[in-house]
Every structure is written in structure tokens, then in C-alpha cells.
# Entry
Amino acid sequence: MSDDPEVLLDVKDLTVRFGVKRGGLFGEPKYLYAVDDISFQIKRGKTLAIVGESGSGKTTAALAVARLVEAYKGTVDLDGTDFLTLEDEDLRQARAKMQFIFQDPYSSLNPRVRAEKIVREPLDNLESGAKEDRQQIVDKLFEAVGLHPEQQRLFPHQFSGGQRQRIGIARALATQPDLIICDEPVSALDVAVQAQILNLLRKLQTDFGLTFLFISHDLGVVQHMCDTIVVMYMGKVVEYADRLSLFNNPLHPYTVALLSAVPSVDKKRRAEMKRILIPGDPPDPLDLPKGCRFANRCPVAIERCKTEQPILNEVALGHQVACHLVDERAVSPLS
Amino acid sequence: MSTNPLIPKDNVPIARHPAAEAWEMFRRNHAAMVALVVLSAIVLVAIFGPYIYPIDPFDMVWAPFSPPGVDGFILGTDYLGRDLLAAIIHGARVSILIGLAAALMSVFIGVTVGALAGFYRGWVEEVLMRITEFFQVLPTLLFSMVIVALFGASLPMITFAIGIVSWTAVARITRSEFLRIRELEYVTASRASGTKNSKLMFKVILPNALPPIIVQAALMVGSAILFEAGLSFLGLTDPNVVSWGQVIGSNRQYILDAGYTVTIPGIAIFVTVLAISLVGDGLNDALNPKLRQR
# Structure
């Protein structure tokens, strides 16, 4: 449990593994470590982003925090309660404090349920208050996310992608949660709608004092939305810093490469930033290298990187990085 | 806070229930519509026929082997001089009742087994699916004959005997639908908002898994009627009630001399089962969203 009262969510040593195959009767069970020993904290009212490429474990980490995937070990401390040790009824009640916005607005709404009932479901599950009160809350939520009251009676397929995501957001807000986990909430939407939804999320954050855990692979979105950023690669945290430090002084070679891939309309910035291509593929998650997991693609890797796993080090105030080539001077090995 | 200016207010579509859309699709299938009319007529006959035509099918009312249309008996008389039309009308009740009850029973068992197996996975699934396989490999007709022979040929026992051998298909369909739907985001979303397991299973997943189950159930009513006909042809039937298969069975020795005594109940079975199959096919069109765009 965190001593800092400012901290809302404190994740420690979170590990998620999946058994891959039984390997016959006597074979050793093999495990895929989708999330390997990650820790981070989010302060009240702030937004933390987890970024990384497909398969880096960011979504699994989010699902494990919300107890939608079982973690192998670690703690998820939300405002003093360890989410991972809660059981049945306690967990069901506690879920009201932590809600989820899903990536795909086309599959995250039950096609047979009217919009108003989708939004009301979390309230119905808690059986909080009278039925009329719940309906009033639904009315307010529809207004808050910018939908017409007439649309309450419609079915999900009668909405556009952006409207569907608004329904998903209204559902997440229904129980007045402290934390909302947004799993790539805009990646399935087109750009114009993305901006609307992101602005809506920001507005709701200030209106309701929400804290966000934001999962994304889009650094442009992250820069717009987030205060702190966790960069993941192959289930590990490679860099953990506040927005300014990360975008102005990316240290890990992987982060530098990621940032160099963000398109920019700024001519000056484009000239400064050399695109760094990272060759090859990520290693086999079932047969991870002994050393740094990025070593086989890293342009500056040395012998030590292949044999020794780097640990997360605080190299500057609020800036942690897991790389052998970065020291207290906080200079990226690529510069 | 203002509402979204991008959605003009008069552009809000009307709320249509999925059932209304399904009916629209069903109506486009002409064969199914005809079959629905035929089936409705048969059901009406089964319900009201015995009151309109109150001749007891077991009464010997005329000379044996009177051909259809002769002596005022529209469908003629059988080898004991019993009115065949009365047998068809009264038999409709039994055949359709057994068909419905047996299908209902298989749906009940099949959905329960399939839902538990598909939802909980793990050892629950292993155990339930092995039991399902056990029932699948049983020779179905033989097994139900044994049940009826052992426990007596009453209507409930015949229904049970048919239901117990035909639920496996429903169980497998339900399980596969559950396996697919439980991974969808709206189920995870529902779980994330604190929905209880029982509600997740029967209120969230099951309604979305229903279309193929309904189609299967409709087809099963037809096969249950056939099954009952088979059993009663073999004499495994309640001797106190008349059914179509029983009429065929009791007249089978005279098939060469008085063919109509077995043909007429045969046609009744054929038409009913065909109508049910076509309606099932129409339901498939109506409820299967993958065919919607066709």
C-alpha cells in the first residue's frame, strides 16, 4: 500500500502468464509471460499511458489490473484495497470503483440490448437506489457524453462508431468510478471522430475528477492526453517517465525509435528527427533471450546487453529507464 | 452541457426490435411462409379437430377396408373398420404434442449442459462433454426402445425416451456458441461492471446464442415426430391413444390390399415434418445475421 495519499492506483510486480501447452503427460508446462513484473503508480486526477507495439503486453496488463484476466502475482492497490485478493461478492462490488472502456465499439456493446439498458447495467448490478433514480442517472449520462435522450431506446447497430464509443463511455461513468481504464479507446475510430472522443474524455476528466489508465500505441494521442508514460516491450517496462521528460529526452533506444516514427507536420522537428528503423522481429515470447529483450533489434547493443538483463533505474527525477547504456547523465545512447 | 451538434435531432432512427427485423427476413422466404400456413393449419386441426369431428378413432364404425370417399368416410376405414379420418385428426394431437415436448426437453437439457460447459470451461467442460459423447455414440432408436420396453409405453415415457437421445446436438451447438460469445468484448464489459455469473450466462450470452438453438429446436420437433412414428410402428406406443405411426404400424400387414391405410398417415407425417423443416429453414434465414445481407 502506498503511503502517498495522492496515489490512487499502485501496481506492484504485476505478472501475467499463460500456460501454453501441456507438453504431453510428463512434459514441462510452458508459460508465456505476457506481463513480466511491471510496477507503476497513478496519482488522483492524472492520466498514465501504457504504450508499446502489438504483443507488448499493454492490453493484458490493463485487463489484469481490472481483474478481467487473472494475474500470476503482484498487487493492484486501488485506494487502499488490493484488487487481486478480493473474492466473489467483494470483487463484484469493488468493480464499481474501476471501470473499463473497450477498444472496439462494435463488439463491446451487447447487440440485443437497448442503449439505455447498456448504460444502466452497472447500476442494476449494484442494485443501488430506486429504479427511477437509476433512470435519472442514465438521462444525465446521455447528456454528459453528448447523446440525445431519444436515442436511449435504440439498439447498438443503429449508432455510428463514435456514438457507440460514447455509449461505452457513459457505461463506464455510471457507477462514478475513481479509475477508468481506457484500452485504445479511439484506435477503431476514424481521425475526426478520434479527436471528438479524446476531447470528450478530457472534458469528463475535469468535470468528474477522473483518473485514467490509458492504453495506446499512438504516441500522438498519448502526448495529447497523458501526464505519465510507461513504455512496454515484450512484457517489460523499458522506460517510465512524465510526459515532458519522455517526449523531450527519450532515453531507451526503443522509445527513441517509437518517437521517431510519429509523423510530424512541423518542418523543423522533422528535420531534427532522424527516423530510426529497428530491424528484425521481437524475440519468441516463449523463448526469451537471457539479456535485454530488445538487444537483437537495438542499433547500439553491446555484448553485455545480450547476457545481462537491465533493470529499471531512476536516471533523472521521475525518469526511469531499463538500459545498460543509460547512466545518471541521462543521455540517450542514440544521440 | 449541450448535446452533440453533429447528430441532427430529426435524424435519430426509430428503435426497431430485432424480432421485427427477423420477421421481415422470414417473410422473404416464400417456402417457409407456405410451410408456416400449412403448419398452423395442422396445429389448429390438432387443437380443435377432435371437437369438430368427435368420432372415436378406436370405435369400429363401418365395414373394414372401405376405401376413401366410399360410404361417407372421407379417408375410408382400416382393417377393423375404424374411421381413418378420426385417426388422423386425433393422432395429430399426440404426434405434435410428443414432438414439441421431446424437443423442449432436449433443448432444456442441451442448453443447460452446453451453457455450463462453454461458460466454465476446465474440468466442468471435460466431464459434461464426455457425458454428451456417451449419449452421442448410443444407438438412439435401440436405446429409446429399451427405455420404453423397460418402463412402459406411456406418453411421458415415450417423450422422455426421445428427448434423452436427442439433446446432444443442442448441447454441442450451445457450447460452441458460448465459447465464441464469452470471448467477445461485450461479455467482458458486462463482467467488468459486476454482473453475476448466472446473469452473464443466461441473460447476456444465452440470448445471443439463441438463433442457431431455435433453428435446431424447430428441426428437432420434426425429427421427434418421426422418431415417435418409428417407435409406434414397432408397437412401442401407448395403446390407449392413437398416433400416426401407430396407425401405420397396425395396418402394415395389409399394405398390399389396402395401401391407403398406411399411405394416408404416412402423408400426414411427411407433410408435417416437411413443413416444420421449411419453417426451421426460414428461421435460419431470419435469425442468422451472416445471411442478412444476402
User: Anything to note?
Assistant: The CA atoms of residues 37 and 61 of chain B lie 32 Å apart. Residues 1-5 of chain B have pLDDT under 50 and may be disordered.
